[in-house]
Amino acid sequence: MTRIDIVSGFLGAGKTTLIKKLLKEALADSKVVLIENEFGEIGIDGGFLKEAGIEIKEMNSGCICCSLVGDFGTSLKEVLHTYAPERILIEPSGVGKLSDVMKAVQGVQTDVEVQLNSAVAVVDASKCKMYIKNFGEFFVNQIEHAGTIILSRTGNLSEEKVAKAVELIREHNAKATIITTPWDQLDGKAILDTIEGAKDLETELMEEVRKQHDHHEHGEACSCGHHHEHDEECHEHHHHEHNEECHGHHHDHGHEHHHDGECCCGHDHGHEGHHHADEVFTSWGMETPAHYEMSEIEYILGELEKEAEYGFVLRAKGMVATESGSWIYFDYVPGESDVRAGNPDATGKFCVIGSRLNEEKLKKLFEK
């Protein structure tokens, strides 16, 4: 029986970093396959993971409800036949709903020998309040359906702020195990043991998702809030979700976005909203052979804070060459960026994801 672990988390929460830690420190002797649900035009995260020698099944076909649920059974059978893994890690798009992924696993359990081992939500403790306020429909769904919630970036926060993040999470999930200790103080095996200790809750959560799905099939609203008869329309745009947690030196821009409960795209994405991910989130990306210097990338990332100019940028990621032949990798989430040296790639790449992005101005900002 192949065990399935779902590692969800909103944009930029640190899912890839957590997965790398688990694979290196807890699952090094296991046969593991990672299924990624990409959200983007230009695949960037796959490169980071392939460097670590991890098998990846990429599905670049739109929002989680369309791509992962739509072809999940076929993809899973292919993975099982090709790799015969002991464990499958599923890393959904950061704007996907965890309940959809759990429902997809339930849907294939009668056809293939798999069992849901865990459902995890990685939450950036420093941005929890902002994301609940602006993107509750997507952000809260991950919290509500997780058996284990792992806070990231707690090492940068005061005890009071971490406690506040826990309080906010508890409003939406009273039972989940919450890991608040900074990751660098924990061994990956200890994290995995904690995750797997929540199995009774996982069974309970799966039963709730099953009941919601049964209601949907009898004509009631699906828990994911999507209109599934229009799912084929979601394939118009391919987005990218970038989820490696920042490390290296950080540039705190000292700015936090506030929209008084309403997203800048003009939609109310509160807890009762019903939106497709691609109605709310858009992405822009480009490939470039141009050379950049560290100071230029740092300037660009600082500019992304100007919401009125470029839209609400939730995540930016990329890699570019310098004149000297070295490479610069960068990550950005609101208020924080990381610029560091990296390995050469086939070509330079930028990708930005957010709400109401001004693609014309983004192109002008990034182009040389």
Report on the architecture of this protein.
This protein folds into two domains: 2-217, 3-Layer(aba) Sandwich (Rossmann fold); 281-366, Hypothetical Protein Yjia, Chain: A,domain 2. Helix content is 36%, strand content 22%. The chain is of the alpha/beta class.
CATH topology of the largest domain: Rossmann fold
Strand order of the largest sheet: 3-2-4-1-5-6-7
Q: Kindly provide the name of the CATH class of the largest domain.
A: Alpha Beta
- Which consecutive residue ranges, at least 5 long each, have pLDDT under 50? 59-70, 216-273
Oligomeric state of shown chains: single chain
For the structure shown, list the relevant keywords.
12 helices, 2 domains, 6-stranded antiparallel sheet, 368 residues, Hypothetical Protein Yjia, Chain: A,domain 2, Rossmann fold, single chain, alpha/beta, 7-stranded parallel sheet
Task: Summarize the structure in short.
It is built from 12 helices and 13 strands. By secondary structure, the protein is of the alpha/beta class. It has 2 domains: 2-217, Rossmann fold (3-Layer(aba) Sandwich); 281-366, 2-Layer Sandwich (Hypothetical Protein Yjia, Chain: A,domain 2), CATH 3.30.1220.
